[in-house]
Amino acid sequence: MNSFKDELEMFEVMKKELYTAVCCDVMDSLGYREQAMRHDIRPVNEDMVVVGRAKTLLAADIQDVYENPYEKEIAALDSVEEGQIVVIDTNGSTYSGIWGELLTTAAMMRGGKGAVVDGLSRDIWKIKKMDFPLFAVGYRPLDSQGRGYIFDYDCTVNCGGVKVKPNDIIFGDIDGVIVIPREIAGEVVNAAREKVSKENISREELLKGKLLKDVYEKYGVL
Q1: Which is nearest to 97 in space by CA: 151, 137, 48?
Q2: Residues 15 and 97 occupy one common structural domain
Q3: Cα angle 169-171-175, degrees, rounded to a multiple of 5
Q4: pLDDT of 65-91, one tens digit each?
Q5: Does pTM top 0.90 for this prediction?
Q6: What's the pLDDT tens digit per position in 17-54?
Q7: Are 142 and 98 in contact (CB under 8 A)?
């Protein structure tokens, strides 16, 4: 990860110094222009920030109660590792609250750092009290049993319109959730830190009354 001793250190730097928009700008410059999930995947608390490696789950609606309805869901949550973010592709479902308090607790105790659900959640008041970074489309109190099923995990999914591979880097804040391909993560983070530094200097000059045209020509950021 270039200048970082490991991924966990990089994640801490991202939370403290960066934000999703500046990382998107860097990925644009590298040709990765469609890495932001849909606008309707929102944090349950506006100040939540999520960053970590993707733990992917693939779900879809069903119409009957399957035998062992939570089998793969349980296996997936029990295999969460330190620094991972649970990412659930529901195939566009708004049928049930596929994520809730007990899954949150299980993920936290395994070292999970958040969840991104392209679908609905429930037990929101409890999850807010746990201060667990959760991003979702909305909420509904219905349980997933007989309504939604986890068919696979640790597989490539499409979440919020973006392809997510296992262990890609997930970064979310009030602006939305982005996916940084793992192979370019170090490059993106280092370049984003440089851009933030230039933005800070540009802001200082603008506050002194300098023209935007002159500041942009000098530092090349906007």
Answers
A1: 137
A2: no
A3: 150
A4: 998 889 999 999 999 999 999 999 999
A5: yes
A6: 999 999 999 999 999 999 999 999 999 999 999 999 99
A7: no
> Under 8 Å CB-to-CB from 116, ≥6 apart: which residues?
37, 41, 50, 85, 86, 87, 88, 135, 136, 159, 160, 170, 172, 177
Any idea which residue has 């958040």 for tokens? 114
Rounded to whole angstroms, how far apart are CA atoms 130 and 127? 5
Q: Which of 164, 152, 68 is nearest to 116 (CA)?
A: 164
pLDDT of residue 2: 55
Residue 33 to residue 36: CA distance in whole angstroms: 8
Regarding whether 149 and 66 lie in a shared domain, the answer is: yes
Q: What are phi and psi of 84, to 5 degrees?
A: -95, 155
* 166 and 185, same domain (yes or no): no
Nearest to 115 by CA among 103, 124, 126: 103
